[in-house]
């Protein structure tokens, strides 16, 4: 009798595991997903501050909660909170017709007045958004009635809809969630948006729980509950996936090449890879005493074996990058002479710059060694690996490369301040490229502005970038892009490494896993269990 009971229990336990799907819960992690309406996602860090008007929070989480006037798709711009819009013939006035029947998750109506309240809050903190050329051209915003929202500019601005459609800062939060005076620059009371999900529970550095927004105006997500676990370590994430504790690992830096190769032929897990999204690169500071010489910079580009990095570090998943932007990026399909991997050429350029090989194997000039520092993000195993490889390779040419890693915030602070000689960076990626990456070069947003200060043609490059943004002539705009990209390429400010792509590894039962035009978005609302 006892044996029969034991067998029955074992059968029921097996059945329970089969029904539960391929992941466990989070927060209430002991619970299964018998109805397959819960997905367990993973991220390397906490969701942080989800204020949609600032830049600290995780973008995938902000995308779940908030929406914008328009959305960017592979087909182009499509309606979101605005069901349609008109652009004046001179390109200076945008009139948005706001969708009826949309409410924030707290019940507040999302009409033109609420949209204006959000823009007013963003403009209170205008200096924080100087990377947006739009901010310099903005004349004013208005809501003539509850269904109409108007933006007026001093000049036409072609990336306008792109900047309004990306994750932040033009995402809408309930005016009730703003602080006194309609402010969001110093924080918000709650994270209340119009998006497909609402934030239900959050324990810092452990997990966050999102539930489907039952009052969502659009198509309701099939998965009703999404739990995001925080697992900083790559190998621990993979082990959690294999043990069924999570369903999905998603993101260009969340999965290494080993894991992609391991699961690409698996029956239990699936792998998905996107098209190129951004360029992994090294930025060289042209104000540095050594790197101010273009021959030295060109030598270092020639000395970088991009294919070896692609094959050795990424197993070919990230393709070698010959230029600052991939040719698949709008306006970037232009012919530029390639800095081919050529150590002999690199040596010749260093000789021409006056750096001769010393007895100790390090090149010297005027009694000083050819010694350069490379800064990387210590949270990135990949950057550390590439740094060590370049240190060895450059050393063979007589270049002493001193590598050092610092935690992310310190690394970013130094990059923005220009406190570096060489530093790792990436382009802004789709859909921000090329316009946002170039616009940011005109302001101290990231390291580009500081790195380019030693260029003789810096003023010309900046003027051309500004003209790009206000151009209404497509042919003229393409010519300006070619001018900027040609000059940056000839100036050898950047060492392109590889073209990054987005990656996902997930359990075989999960469907709808795909990539969008934004490398930062995780379209969890499109996913479901079969």
Describe the fold and architecture.
With 530 residues, this protein is α+β, with helices and mostly antiparallel strands. It has 3 domains: 123 residues, D-Maltodextrin-Binding Protein, domain 2; 111 residues, 3-Layer(aba) Sandwich (D-Maltodextrin-Binding Protein, domain 2); 226 residues, Dipeptide-binding Protein, domain 3 (Roll). Helices cover 30% and strands 23% of the residues. It has 16 helices and 22 strands. The strands form 6 sheets. Strands 11, 12, 13, 17, 18, 19 and 20 form a 7-stranded mixed β-sheet that branches. Strands 1-10-9-8 form a 4-stranded mixed β-sheet, with no helix packed on it. Strand 2 and strand 3 form a beta hairpin. Helix 8 runs antiparallel to helix 10 and helix 15 runs antiparallel to helix 16. The N terminus is likely disordered.
Compact overview of the structure:
This protein has 530 residues and is of the alpha+beta class. It is built from 16 helices and 22 strands.
CATH architecture of the largest domain: Roll
Rg over C-alpha atoms, rounded to the nearest angstrom: 25 Å
Major sheet details:
7 strands, mixed
End-to-end Cα distance:
38 Å
CATH topology grouping of the largest domain: Dipeptide-binding Protein, domain 3
Determine the fraction of residues in helical runs and give it as a percent range: 25-40%
Please count the beta strands (DSSP E, at least 2 residues each).
22
List the domain count as a whole number: 3
Assess the beta-strand content as a share of residues. 15-25%
Average pLDDT taken over every residue: 91
What does the oligomeric state look like here? single chain
* Uncertain stretches: 1-21, 24-34
CATH superfamily of the largest domain: Dipeptide-binding Protein, Domain 3
Net shape? globular
How would you classify the helix and strand content by structural class? alpha+beta
Number of helices: 16
Write down the CATH class of the largest domain.
Alpha Beta
């Amino acid at each position: 009798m006892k044996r029969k009971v034991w067998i029955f229990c074992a059968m029921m336990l097996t059945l329970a595991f089969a029904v539960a799907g391929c992941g466990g819960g989070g927060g209430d992690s002991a619970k299964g997903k018998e109805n397959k309406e819960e997905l367990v996602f993973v991220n390397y860090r906490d969701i942080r501050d989800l204020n949609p008007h600032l830049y600290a929070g995780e973008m995938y989480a902000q995308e779940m909660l908030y929406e914008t006037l328009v959305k960017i798709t592979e087909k182009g711009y499509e309606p979101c909170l605005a069901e349609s819009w008109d652009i004046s013939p001179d390109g200076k006035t945008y009139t948005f017709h706001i969708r009826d029947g949309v409410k924030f998750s707290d019940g507040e109506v999302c009409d033109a007045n609420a949209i204006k309240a959000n823009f007013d809050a963003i403009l209170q903190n205008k200096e924080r958004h100087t990377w947006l050329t739009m901010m310099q051209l903005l004349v004013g915003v208005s809501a003539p009635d509850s269904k109409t929202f108007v933006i007026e500019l001093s000049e036409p601005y072609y990336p306008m809809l792109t900047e309004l459609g990306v994750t932040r800062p033009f995402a809408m939060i309930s005016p009730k969630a703003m602080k006194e005076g309609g402010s969001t620059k110093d924080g918000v009371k709650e994270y209340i948006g119009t998006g497909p999900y609402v934030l239900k529970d959050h324990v810092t550095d452990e997990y966050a729980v999102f539930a489907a927004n039952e009052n969502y105006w659009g198509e309701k997500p099939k998965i009703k509950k999404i739990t995001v676990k925080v697992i900083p370590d790559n190998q621990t994430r993979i082990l959690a996936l294999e043990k069924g504790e999570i369903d999905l690992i998603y993101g260009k830096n969340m999965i290494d090449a080993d894991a992609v190769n391991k699961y690409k032929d698996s029956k239990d897990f699936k792998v998905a890879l996107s098209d190129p999204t951004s360029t992994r690169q090294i930025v060289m500071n042209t104000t540095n005493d050594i790197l101010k010489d273009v021959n030295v910079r060109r030598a270092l580009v020639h000395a970088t074996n991009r294919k070896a990095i692609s094959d050795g570090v990424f197993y070919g998943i990230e393709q070698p990058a010959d230029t600052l932007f991939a040719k698949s990026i709008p306006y970037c399909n232009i012919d530029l002479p390639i800095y081919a991997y050529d150590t002999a050429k690199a040596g010749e350029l260093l000789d021409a710059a006056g750096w001769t090989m010393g007895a100790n194997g390090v090149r010297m000039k005027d009694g000083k060694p050819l010694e350069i520092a490379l800064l990387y993000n210590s949270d990135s195993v990949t950057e550390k690996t590439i740094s060590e490889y370049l240190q060895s390779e450059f050393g063979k040419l007589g270049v002493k490369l001193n590598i050092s890693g610092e935690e992310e915030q310190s690394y970013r602070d130094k990059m923005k301040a220009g406190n570096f000689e060489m530093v790792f960076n990436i382009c802004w990626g789709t859909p921000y490229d090329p316009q946002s990456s170039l616009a940011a070069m005109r302001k101290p947003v990231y390291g580009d502005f500081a790195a380019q200060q030693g260029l003789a043609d810096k003023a010309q490059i900046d003027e051309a970038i500004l003209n790009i943004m206000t151009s209404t002539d497509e042919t003229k705009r393409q010519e300006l892009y070619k001018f900027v990209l040609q000059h940056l390429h000839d100036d050898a400010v950047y060492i392109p490494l590889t073209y990054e792509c987005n990656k996902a590894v997930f359990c075989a039962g999960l469907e709808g896993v795909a990539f969008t035009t934004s490398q930062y978005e995780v379209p969890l609302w499109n996913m479901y269990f079969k």
